[in-house]
């Protein structure tokens, strides 16, 4: 049982840890102190759904729709490039009064952005769903599969809430519009790098 728990927790954590679009947005919301709880909860619940689907065998279902990853990839590329452009425009304008003063922005817009970043990225399905689903195959009994799944889901909750609320520890350094500019430029860079990676993966096929 402990083997299943440790495998599930640390495998999931290793997939979430690399800097990605989700993590960058959670960090930004944490620094802005804007809708942090719902930002973290949405990302963690999304991961939980994908993890459960992976263990349940969604990868085999998706294999029946071979064109779906292609359309999802283009949707992800378009969104990521668009969002990167918005962050660069924000950095150019330098209007960060709401972020510095901790004024909440539209929760609906934040959730919509997170939904696009999460569900339009085919790598999420390949990494989280397919990989974790494959790793879970070594645990054949139902109790072990449940233990593996719960541990993997808990890793996602621990990570996102740690990033979201832990960002407050460095929030004092973000009292300057210049620092927010740097952050937005960095986030734009992450988005464009992911978009480029998605495009390269398309070209390779």
From TrEMBL:
Record-linked Pfam families: LysE
Chief place of localization: membrane
Subcellular location: Cell membrane
Membrane topology term: Multi-pass membrane protein
Entry annotated with the keyword Transmembrane helix: yes
Chain ranges passing through the membrane: 6-27, 36-62, 68-86, 107-126, 146-167, 179-202
Alphabetized UniProt keyword annotations: Cell membrane, Membrane, Transmembrane, Transmembrane helix
InterPro entries per the UniProt record, alphabetical: LeuE-type
Protein name, UniProt field: Amino acid transporter
Classification lineage: Bacteria, Pseudomonadati, Pseudomonadota, Alphaproteobacteria, Rhodobacterales
């Amino acid at each position: 049982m402990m083997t299943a728990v440790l495998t599930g927790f640390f495998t999931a954590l290793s997939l979430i840890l690399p800097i990605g679009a989700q993590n960058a947005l959670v960090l930004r919301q944490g620094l802005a102190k804007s809708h942090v709880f719902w930002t973290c909860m949405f990302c963690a619940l999304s991961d939980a759904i994908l993890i459960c689907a992976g263990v349940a065998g969604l990868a085999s279902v998706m294999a029946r729709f071979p064109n779906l990853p292609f359309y999802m990839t283009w949707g992800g590329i378009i969104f990521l490039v668009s969002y990167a452009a918005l962050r660069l425009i924000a950095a150019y304008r330098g209007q960060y009064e709401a972020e510095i003063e901790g004024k909440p922005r539209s929760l609906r817009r934040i959730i919509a952005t997170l939904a696009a970043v999460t569900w339009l990225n085919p790598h999420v399905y390949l990494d989280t769903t397919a990989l974790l689903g494959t790793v879970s195959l070594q645990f054949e009994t139902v109790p072990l599969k449940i233990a593996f799944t719960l541990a993997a889901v808990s890793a996602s909750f621990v990570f996102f809430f740690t990033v979201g609320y832990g960002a407050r520890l460095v929030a004092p350094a973000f009292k300057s519009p210049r620092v927010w500019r740097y952050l937005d430029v960095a986030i734009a860079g992450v988005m464009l790098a992911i978009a480029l990676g998605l495009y390269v993966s398309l070209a390779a096929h």
